[in-house]
Specification:
Length: 180
């Protein structure tokens, strides 16, 4: 992507990394796989805000078949020493028992967020649960996670744009940038 110029967010320079066309192709391919795998099953997509909003919008436009969509936020705080980090799920009012859940995430980096979130969701007894992630950084992963639906694997670099922020900025960018 040589055509777009570098940008600055706050104090930091970023260079173009993935074009809108490259993102669209990866998202479309993932939507096709999900559409085939969930044909006739009416999954419940659980979109994790805020970073997942743009990815979810493009992914779900391309999902064919019946589905339902909800949005959640995750608040983390330190629990007791036995429970460690606790993830509270905000906004999930639907009964997920017996449902085929697909968690829509912006990026899996160390995997810590999902490592704590998945048990909370699994305790609600869904029929199945998968993760659809826009980005996955395999070199950073520190927990055991099964990721069957990843749009793009990327190196261990900090990226912004297409929903992802650097200290609040950059979420609106239609392309993805990497620290220059
Ligand atoms: P994890 O818990 O897997 O280490 O990290 C997940 C969260 O860290 C993401 O939802 C995101 O908020 C943040 N994160 C990890 N890597 C990046 C990155 O390259 N860029 C941005 N903008 N956020 C990231
Ligand atoms: Mg996230
Ligand atoms: Mg962020």
């Amino acid at each position: 992507m040589g055509s777009s110029p570098n940008i600055t967010l706050h104090d930091k320079a970023f260079r173009p990394y993935l074009s809108a066309a490259e993102l669209a192709a990866a998202v479309e391919a993932l939507a096709g796989r999900l559409s085939a795998d969930y044909a006739g099953r009416r999954p419940l997509f659980v979109v994790v805000l805020t970073g997942g909003f743009m990815f979810a919008s493009d992914l779900l436009k391309r999902f064919s078949g019946d589905c339902e969509i909800v949005f959640i936020r995750v608040a983390s705080y330190e629990g007791t020493s036995s429970t460690g980090q606790v993830q509270e799920i905000l906004g999930l009012r639907e009964d997920v028992q017996g449902r085929d859940l697909i968690l829509v995430e912006d990026i899996v980096d160390t995997g810590t967020t999902l490592h704590h979130l998945l048990p909370t969701l699994l305790a609600k007894n869904p029929a199945s649960m998968e993760i659809a992630a826009l980005f996955f950084k395999p070199a950073s992963l520190r927990h055991e996670l099964t990721l069957n639906y990843v749009a793009l694997e990327i190196p261990n670099d900090f990226v912004v744009g297409y929903g992802l922020d650097y200290d609040g900025l950059g979420r609106n960018l239609p392309e993805v940038y990497v620290a220059a």
